[in-house]
Amino acid sequence: MEFFVKSGNPEKQRSACIVVGVFEPRRLSHAGELLDEMSEGYLSTLLRRGDIEGKVGQVLFLHHVPNVLSERVLLVGCGKERELTETQYKQIITKTIATLNDTGSLEAICFLSELHIKGRDSYWAVRQAVEAAKDSLYSFDQFKTNKENTRRPLRKLTFNVPSRKDLTRAEQALQHALAVAQGSKVCKDLANMPPNICTPLYLSEQAKGLAERFQKIECEIIDTAQMQALQMNSYLAVAQGSKNPAYMSLIHYKGGKEEQKPIILIGKGLTFDSGGISLKPGEAMDEMKYDMGGAASVFGAMQALAALDLPINVIGILAGAENMPSGNAYRPGDILTTMSGQTVEVLNTDAEGRLVLCDVLTYVERFQPECVIDVATLTGACIIALGHNISALMTPHKGLANELLNASNQASDKAWQLPMDDEFQKQLDSPFADMANIGGRPAGSITAACFLSRFTKNYNWAHLDIAGTAWKSGANKGSTGRPVPLLTQFLINRSESDQNESHI
Ligand code: BES
Ligand code: MN
Ligand code: ZN
């Protein structure tokens, strides 16, 4: 489907369908009122008769409304005007798309992007509308023999903004939304892929694919032998129980000046996390294919970044490995010497993400990074703390925290900062090594971040735990594409801030 923005009067639109809002109780939106005048009160009569109340999720589809140039009018319930929330706005857009797709209009002009949401502007409204639309149209059906095809799908959707002076920003919103949506789509495709196909090698092939598609991207693959030479023993220990060897894939995006330090994004890429010898229980274990959701989101953000052609240098890293039990697997009790030289006593082979990431965090020192952000489905405790709608942010760096929380808010991709005070560090004490790989039940997400922090002393670093937000379980099981919007927004903001400004 193609998207457009414009600023026009509803009464002048000649389209297959014109979409306007109705507020509770039975009140037309501004665009609706204009159409009502044209139709000499046709719409308000329907409302008075009680055909639509205006509750969120209600729709009323009308044909041949008197004097209206468009063939159809779709009235969409928007709830109470002053109480319209961001979530409801996205629901309204999703419902609109579903209705339009069901009813055979090939194109439509939508005035719902004029709705007012507290603290948001028309840039936000257009961007979220396009992202929500794309999101609702996504399906992962490449392994289905019979695919469900919409008979007459919507081909062209135009979002209207109230005034001509909003148009430039609306165009930008559209451009950003399309890049984010495409990034989210490739993230979802990669994350939804089954673990017998999506192995660490497959991740590396996807990385190479990006380099082929974008001139500013180069790809570098570090295989097991190279990791051995680099002494990435902790990373390799996690992978040693699997027949699918580890690959670390580096995606170099060079959009800035050569001397400009790179921003580094590291994604946990456990293509399957069985728990290893500390085997997980069987229930929902299939969902541990999503343990590469961090890597998938880094991949998606790199795609969005390249599509936007931003003038910065970024390195995206997919830390691919598979955690399996076998005669060759690492075990509880093992002591590993990480690439940094620090030693780790393994108390649970299921706390593998941090063992992979710690060596990558050491590896990236060579790039003298501007900052490093790792993204990982790291702890079940994160779901207990924040649920399935909010990602956890942990960082010792105030400036980076503010930047990421800002990006999260701008992109409506929620995140919340958890503390990482020094007191938590002692939970990682080990009698035999420099540290243990687990810190006990209390504050499990924080102690995981504390573990990582020990490998990040030489640059500014932040950690996103996306265990709760990377995918959905149940009937609508699937990757969410998060946090591609947050990461992309962060990169957009960095590219817009003064090029010479250093972020200390
Ligand atoms: N990938 C899991 C975390 C996870 C679990 C994410 C469930 C989403 C849903 C991670 O590797 C893991 O197993 N973590 C353990 C750590 C524990 C052993 C300290 C966990 O959270 O149980
Ligand atoms: Mn695990
Ligand atoms: Zn894991």
Q: Helix fraction?
A: 25-40%
Uncertain segments: none
C-alpha-based Rg, rounded: 25 Å
Number of strands: 20
Largest sheet: 8 strands, mixed
The distinct ligands, each listed once, are:
ligand BES, manganese (II) ion, zinc ion
CATH superfamily of the largest domain: Zn peptidases
Count of helix runs? 14
Give the spatial strand order of the biggest sheet: 8-9-11-10-14-18-15-16
What is the annotated CATH architecture of the largest domain? Answer: 3-Layer(aba) Sandwich
Give the rounded overall mean pLDDT: 97
- The CATH class assignment of the largest domain is Alpha Beta
Please name the CATH topology of the largest domain: Aminopeptidase
- Count up the domains: 2
Summing up helix and strand content along with how strands pair, one would put the structural category as alpha/beta
First-last Cα distance:
42 Å
Q: Which descriptor suits the 3D outline?
A: elongated
- Strand percent estimate: 15-25%
Q: Keywords for this structure?
A:
eight-stranded mixed sheet; alpha/beta; 14 helices; binds zinc ion; elongated; binds ligand BES; binds manganese (II) ion; Aminopeptidase; Leucine Aminopeptidase, subunit E, domain 1; single chain
Write structural notes for this entry.
The protein is of the alpha/beta class. The protein has two domains: 148 residues, Leucine Aminopeptidase, subunit E, domain 1 (3-Layer(aba) Sandwich); 320 residues, Zn peptidases (Aminopeptidase, 3-Layer(aba) Sandwich), CATH 3.40.630.10. It has 14 helices and 20 strands. The strands form four sheets. Strands 8-9-11-10-14-18-15-16 form an eight-stranded mixed sheet, sandwiched between helices. β4 and β5 form a beta hairpin. The structure holds ligand BES, manganese (II) ion and zinc ion.
